[in-house]
Amino acid sequence: MMKVLQASYSIYALLLFILLMLVFGLFIIIPLIISPKGAKISFVFFRLWAGLWFFLCGVRYEVEGLEHIKKESSYIFIFNHRSFVDAPIIPVSVPKEVNAIGKKELSKIPIFGLIVDRVAVWVDRSSPQSRKESLRKVKEVIASGVSVMIAPEGTRNGTGETLLPFKKGAFRLSAETQTPILPMAIIGADKILPKGGKIMKPGKIRVIFSKEMSPPSSSDEDTILSYTEKGRNRLEAMLLTHE
Questions:
Q1: Taking a C-beta distance cutoff of 8 angstroms, is the pair 98, 77 a contact?
Q2: Number of Cβ within a 10 Å radius of residue 63
Q3: What is the rounded distance in angstroms from the CA atom of residue 88 to the CA atom of residue 71?
Q4: Short-list 74, 169, 189, CA closest to 125
Q5: Do 213 and 182 touch, CB atoms closer than 8 A?
Q6: Phi–psi pair at 145, nearest 5 degrees
Q7: 114-147 per-position pLDDT tens digit
Q8: How far apart are alpha carbons 50 and 100 in whole angstroms?
Q9: How many CA atoms lie within 13 A of 12 on its CB side?
Q10: CA pair distance 163, 81, nearest whole angstrom
Q11: H-helix or E-strand containing 234?
């Protein structure tokens, strides 16, 4: 009986996800088509979509450390990535417009990919040309005053380790654009829907923001390596302290 209930709930959550995407999709896309400044309006509807989905699915969330986020500043947010549920938790927890960097495979998800395409930079990690082009686009986003969201692990973590090894891209981008890194710990999302899992369940997610990390003045390899390790240590400490 329990398995039947869990499967029914998972199907309900999936269908609700699709339905809400269809309902809010036009309100997200149209402002962006009309004007680049429409992104602020689109982000409001992203928050409404994600918040309503969580509410109707019985998923609660709480956010700590918002005092570390300055409204007038742009950031490169880094976060630990263990669940697909990390995607909708971003718009309801980050109090400012953000663009995300994601794997190109996500753009192929029906409806979701079409809508999120407007506020994401997709990258094919197997293609050097794609990585170069995505870097150019991200720099344009930051130059426009919009923050970006990057998972430096590069993929969802399905291991028993707190974090996977970090890739250096976010930290090199921080140094080259002189944009501070702001660590964001997501706790509990993998209990709701783990990597590779097909059964979802209600629960609670905690999101914790840390103080920003000022970028180094140099972008040489040793400096970036040290900066990356510092960022990983900061995020790991946040997760170990609050889990």
A1: yes
A2: 16
A3: 21
A4: 169
A5: yes
A6: 95, 5
A7: 566 666 666 666 666 767 777 788 888 888 888 9
A8: 15
A9: 14
A10: 8
A11: helix 221-242
Return the higher-pLDDT residue of 231 and 110: 231
pLDDT digits over 183-238, tens only? 999 999 999 998 888 899 999 999 999 999 999 998 899 999 999 999 999 999 99
Contact 155, 207 (CB under 8 A): no
Structural domains in the chain, CATH included, are 59-242 (3.40.1130.10)
The maximal CA–CA distance of the chain, rounded, in angstroms, is 59
Which residues are registered as beta bridge partners of 209? Answer: 184
pTM summary value: 0.88
Helix or strand run (H / E) with residue 47? helix 39-57
> Crossing angle of helices 169-177/221-242, nearest 10°?
120
Cα separation of 75 and 95, whole Å? Answer: 12
